[in-house]
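B., you asked whether I could sanity-check this one before it goes into the benchmark set. Here's the sequence:
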Amino acid sequence: MSKIAIFGGSFDPVHKSHIQIAGLALKRFDLKELIFVVAYAPPHKQQQYAGIEDRISMLRLVTYNIHKARVSCYEAQKKGIVYSYQTLDHFKSLYSMDEIYIIIGSDSFLNLSTWKNIDYIVAHYRFIIAKRANIAINNDAEYLDRCIFIDKEIEDISSTKVREFIKLDRRKAASLLDKKVYNYIIQKRLYK
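And here's what the prediction gave me:
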């Protein structure tokens, strides 16, 4: 059975850690495909800072040369909140013969109990966990048996930090972004 990984998020903006996670997951777990899913309105965030079309465009810029990676507009087309279980079920309907994984950070793993229909998700899907700095997961953590881990710690970058640096220190922002994404942000005057 082949593995399909769903990597969801607001990607506001997509940064080097997102790309690092995707690259490591593709390499380490022999994925058939990795699908970035851009959230129109993530249930756990108050707002998005760039419009959905800009966030999709930035993701397409960085995934263009990543073998086996693509961008899905499934959630964006819904124009509202879409829960993870709904997205996973959608992709399971498309890839019925494959095993579906969802990629999340270790910080998100610690909050799984707050996810809508988490028991259903855990019963039907598995997780690829990206280790984040200073986030420890106990060996007796709930749902651990449904996870595989990227064994390399991911660079500590957040979209929040990137947005702040775009306002205060463009050189620092540029170091955290793919050059094409940085140029897109400057050209479109995003995150001012």
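One thing to flag: The beta strands are 3-9, 33-38, 69-72, 99-105, 126-132, 147-154. Otherwise nothing jumped out at me.
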